[in-house]
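Appendix B.2, paired examples.
Example (i):
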Amino acid sequence: MSWFSVQKYRKELVNDLCEAIKNGTAPWQRPWSKVVQEWPRNAFTGHHYSYNNAMKLYARAKRMGYTDCRWLTYRQAQDLGGHVKLGEKGTYIQFYVENGAVQITNAKKEPVLNTNGEPVYRAQWILKRYVVFNAEQISGLTYYVPEPPKIHAPVKKCEKAERILQESGAKIHHGGNEAYYNFEYDFIQLPKMEEFHTSADYYATALHELSHWTGHESRLNRNFWESFGKEAYAFEELVAEISSMFVSAETGIDQTKAHFDNHAAYVSNWLKVIKQNSQAIINAVKLAHQASDFILKNERAREKADEKKAS
């Protein structure tokens, strides 16, 4: 993919996300409660898009008013018997595709060998760009009926979320009326659960602070704390907010409008950071995935073990 294409992709992603943030509809700013939102997926393969592509398509759908979560390339639409409507413009997405292997060499350009004396190779990847269209831009497709929203009954405690917080090993103190992560002394401070409007607000806040906790030098070492200023702080807040959303999606914890209203002060700073550097949102999503993977590693291992036992 050319440098121009990469820059165009990033510009489109930034513009759509900035618009979504202004409207309070960014993927990590869901202004509704107790509804599971469907993520963008490819209608031909059935696979959900991941990382920045999902963010971009989600934001584009909100911006254009699409309610269908399905996306297709021009050829995929034809293969399903559909036709892209006249005048419709597609959305660029990008993937890294494996393209053979290259031999690894050392600083002296000598082949690196394994313990058996055999050359060591690594996968070679190239960046490819595709244009996709939302199903609402395509005629001739079967009508899409989304699953009805899942309504969760109010709960006082979430067993899975409690387990994740406890097994993380993070020092969590309760009391007072502030929620924050103390980097110097490596602990999380939260008000007591009964001080929150709902348990969902408590867990969303706890997971947000736990995401900050993963950035400590002894864990993922994000090092943002060494960079002072509003921009550095806003970037870390963006990482933590997206990570909290990812973890909440897996644990079934709703993120309510009240939770995001409490973070409203950061929105203008998020916009400033993203607009100044298009790479910022790319990096934020990547770091948020690392943080959420770190938080969920024990829970995922448990689920795999349970599946193995069941089989």
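Example (ii):
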Amino acid sequence: MLDKNYDAAAVEPRIYETWEGQGAFKAGAGAKPGAKPFSIVIPPPNVTGSLHMGHALNNTLQDVLVRFERMRGKDVLWQVGLDHAGIATQMVVERQMAERQEPNRRDIGRDAFVEKVWKWKAESGGTIIGQLKRLGASADWSRERFTMDEGLSKAVLKVFVELYRGGLIYKDKRLVNWDPKLETAISDLEVIQVETKGKLYHFRYPIEGKTFDPDDATTYITVATTRPETMLGDTAVAVHPEDERYQAFVAAGAHAILPLVGRRIPIVADEYSDPEKGSGAVKITPAHDFNDFEVGKRHNLPMISVLDRQANIIIAGNADFLADLPKTAALSDTIAALDGLDRFAARNAVVAMLEEQGYRAEI
């Protein structure tokens, strides 16, 4: 006797098990010898979680295509697999460890942490495959792959080496989203941009060749920043090309002297600077800001990182920071006062030092 209502949860898994048990989705199943091949490689879903509606739509469309081509008598392969998504997976596993108040990855060591990641892959991957099967995806499950499988890993390594040797890929310094708590890079997709109410600080940077006088505006250029602690890594001051206030500086190739540090930095014309905001001049720290990084590339500026993996100030023994700096008592005082400080403690310390030396400005 038929049920009054169709119960998909009871009927569809039974049908799917029958299909899979008979090998209906395997490449070559039902195709005549010499049949024309047709194949699709699934865009491998990340093993970091479960599938969403976008995956459901994507895989349904692929399923329509492969089923249609089977009906046309072609030898069909729908290659299925999962992507390891290394950065995101590491972040998920470390979050779990933190929530459970377990020792972090550095405490337990690499091998133990990798073991935890593989365990997570088994759990999450099983969920994803189950979801695909529940959708009715007619993939060849006998060929299921994972991007960290030995064969695939070797293939990726081979291709990257060949591309590098051919000059088609290169190694370079670039900014990443770094989590100082988990000590790992985070992909752009994993970052949630949140606007917070901050504070805009203004500081006077002395002009090279002039005796600094806080009461004489011709002896300095005022810059704005929301992160004073990064000023230690400044490599330029940017002004808008059409800002008449600073055209003489740009035309003369003027330089500023970075307070507390003594670094000679150029005053460059760049449209990134907003003449309507603050003083119209902004400090440029290519190693610690994505916008500044682009300005740095346009003007061939050095990148000086002044933060370590835990976001503490690291300037003592920092070759990039110390390069071409005159060894002065002021520099020694700066290093002694700031090296090793947490970034927020350093922020307060930098502001206090600049204010004490007359470099703090109010606009």
